[in-house]
Design goal:
By secondary structure, the chain is α+β, with helices and mostly antiparallel strands. The chain contains nine helices and twelve strands. The protein is globular, with a radius of gyration of 21 Å.
Length: 283
């Protein structure tokens, strides 16, 4: 079972409690090299300045990708804080690879380039000849992997990404190996077969949709806000760079109305009763 990889890692690390952990010099060198390469790779500008389909985004909502493809102002460029998150994600990936090797499990095909339908991607690795995608996650996101709930809430299209790697390799098996950035806990998650899309067909359909003059349907339905009849955008839309343009026809053509609650900004698509908090006009 894939979850045995976590037990193998824990068992090896637990040796520190009784003796000095023996780390082969080869692994030390590979870990140092991997960390350095991750740092230098992160420091370079993204290879594709213009929009392009990648394994890492084919599972995102098509409406979001439609707006991103037409984004001339590059609104989706990562902020400095997000760039920092990217960096320690890359570094944690190297740490996980080190743990896997140290636990006696085999790693191959690191960053192997794969392709489906003219779309390319680089898989993280194979562990014991099985396709694996390594993820670092917040405690909330980690719980979705740990409890098998990713299928119900996968806004970044992780399952589609993993499935594309698997199908490009002609494999019938793959899984996620995930670390909780807050606690250090590890888990694995293997998507059910019914949750795996046909990557080739998905890519083909997505190419057609993105060329259309009008955007696809909304990614997520609006949500009731309180008991007043007001409605707001879905939680997965809050951090989207294109929410303003996407919902420009809301509130009878006025666009989103934003109100500053103690819990944060709330983006209303329909206002039946004016909230008793400040409205934000520049956002």
């Amino acid at each position: 079972m894939h979850k045995e990889i976590v037990n193998d890692i824990y068992k090896k690390i637990d040796e520190i409690n009784s003796a000095t952990l023996q780390i082969p010099e080869k692994y030390v060198e590979e870990f140092s090299t991997g960390m350095g390469e991750a740092l230098l790779g992160w420091a370079k500008p993204r290879e594709h300045r213009d929009f392009t389909l990648r394994f890492s985004n084919i599972g995102k909502p098509s409406r979001q990708l439609w707006f991103e493809k037409r984004d001339t102002r590059k609104q989706n460029q990562p902020s400095p804080t997000l760039q920092i998150k990217f960096l320690y994600g890359h570094l944690l990936e190297q740490l996980i690879l080190f743990f896997v090797k140290l636990s006696g499990n085999g790693i191959s095909a690191e960053q192997k380039e794969v392709e489906i339908g003219g779309i390319k991607g680089h898989m993280d690795c194979k562990i014991n000849n099985t396709v694996v995608d390594i993820k670092s996650a917040s405690h909330y996101s980690f719980s979705k992997f740990k409890n098998g709930l990713l299928r119900e809430d996968d806004p970044f299209g992780y399952i589609s990404q993993l499935t594309a790697y698997e199908q490009a390799e002609g494999s019938q098996d793959s899984y996620f190996l995930v670390i909780d950035k807050e606690t250090g806990e590890l888990c694995t998650y293997t998507p059910e077969e019914l949750d795996k899309p046909n990557a080739a067909e998905a890519i083909k359909d997505l190419k057609v949709v993105l060329e259309k003059e009008t955007p696809p349907d909304f990614c997520y339905p609006t949500v009731e806000e309180g008991k007043s009849g007001n409605r707001k955008i879905h939680k997965n839309c809050v951090y989207c760079s294109y929410k303003k343009e996407c919902h420009k026809d809301s509130n009878n053509g006025l666009g989103l109305r934003v109100f500053k609650y103690a819990r944060g900004l709330v983006y209303l698509t329909s206002v039946k009763a004016i909230p008793k908090v400040d409205e934000v006009y520049e956002w």
